[in-house]
């Protein structure tokens, strides 16, 4: 048993915490903050000839302006299934079908809706923080097993301190992302 064995747990925790933060960023990009974004449609699945397919794999999605998304299906007969999938996803806007493409005009957010979005944002953030803390717990448990297997207590304590510093760093970064998203949502 060497310090390298303990460092493996620290490096693994760092890598996994980074992935948790990236997941948070991805989830936050799906939350509407007044502007229309193709990321809002991520996760919507369309029935493509009996095969559930992500909406971005059966159509082209663009912004025509800050509040309008334009969805152009690869095949004209996919307009109705895409429209149904968007309506079923309840994104807060109804698509307009002109027979060639779909337009989604995002209505301005009401104060009540903004507060609801901030609440959702905080819930997403809390899930990320819990994930980061679980990663810390797993890393520390692994380090304690190494200590039982004969690794020196000093090396384990140093590694545990490194894991705690990583945890503090990533939770702080998550808080900054949340603060930024809340400001974006509440800006009229």
Oligomer state of the chains in this structure: single chain
Specify the overall morphology: elongated
Strand content: 5-15%
Q: What is the CATH domain class of the largest domain? A: Mainly Alpha
Unreliable parts:
none
Following the backbone from N to C, one meets helices and strands in this order, namely HEEEEHEEHH
Distance between the termini: 58 Å
Whole-number total of structural domains:
2
Determine the number of helices (DSSP H or I, runs of at least 4 residues): 4
Radius of gyration (CA) equals: 22 Å
Instruction: Give the CATH H-level superfamily of the largest domain.
Output: Ribosome-recycling factor
Main beta sheet strand tally, sense and closure:
4 strands, antiparallel
**Which structural class should the secondary elements be placed in?**
alpha+beta
The tally of strands reads: 6
Q: CATH topology of the largest domain, what is it called?
A: Topoisomerase I, Chain A, domain 4
User: What is the architecture of the largest domain at the second tier of CATH?
Assistant: Orthogonal Bundle
The largest sheet has its strands arranged as: 3-4-6-5
What is the helix content?
55-70%
What does this structure look like?
The chain is 59% helix and 15% strand. The chain has 188 residues and is α+β, with helices and mostly antiparallel strands. The protein folds into 2 domains: 3-30 and 110-186, Orthogonal Bundle (Topoisomerase I, Chain A, domain 4); 38-105, Gyrase A, domain 2 (2-Layer Sandwich). Strands 3-4-6-5 form a 4-stranded antiparallel β-sheet, with helices on one face. It has a two-stranded antiparallel ribbon with strand order 1-2. Helix 1 packs antiparallel against helix 3 (111-148), helix 1 packs parallel to helix 4 (153-186) and helix 3 packs antiparallel against helix 4. The protein is elongated and about 70 Å long. It starts with a helix and ends with a helix. The model has no long low-confidence stretch (mean pLDDT 87).
């Amino acid at each position: 048993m060497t310090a390298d064995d303990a460092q493996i747990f620290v490096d693994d925790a760092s890598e996994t915490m980074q992935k948790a933060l990236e997941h948070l960023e991805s989830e936050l990009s799906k939350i509407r903050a007044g502007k229309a974004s193709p990321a809002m449609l991520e996760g919507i699945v369309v029935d493509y000839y009996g095969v559930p397919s992500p909406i971005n794999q059966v159509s082209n999605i663009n912004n025509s302006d800050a509040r309008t998304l334009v969805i152009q299906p690869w095949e004209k007969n996919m307009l109705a299934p895409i429209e149904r999938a968007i309506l079923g996803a309840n994104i807060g806007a109804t698509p307009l079908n002109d027979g060639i493409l779909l337009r989604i005009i995002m209505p301005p957010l009401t104060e009540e809706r903004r507060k609801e979005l901030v609440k959702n944002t905080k819930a997403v953030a809390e899930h990320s923080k819990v994930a980061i803390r679980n990663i810390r717990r797993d890393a520390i448990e692994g380090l304690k097993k190494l200590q039982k297997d004969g690794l020196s207590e000093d090396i384990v304590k140093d590694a545990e301190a490194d894991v705690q510093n990583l945890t503090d760093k990533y939770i702080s970064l998550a808080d900054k992302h949340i603060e930024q998203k809340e400001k974006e949502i509440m800006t009229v």
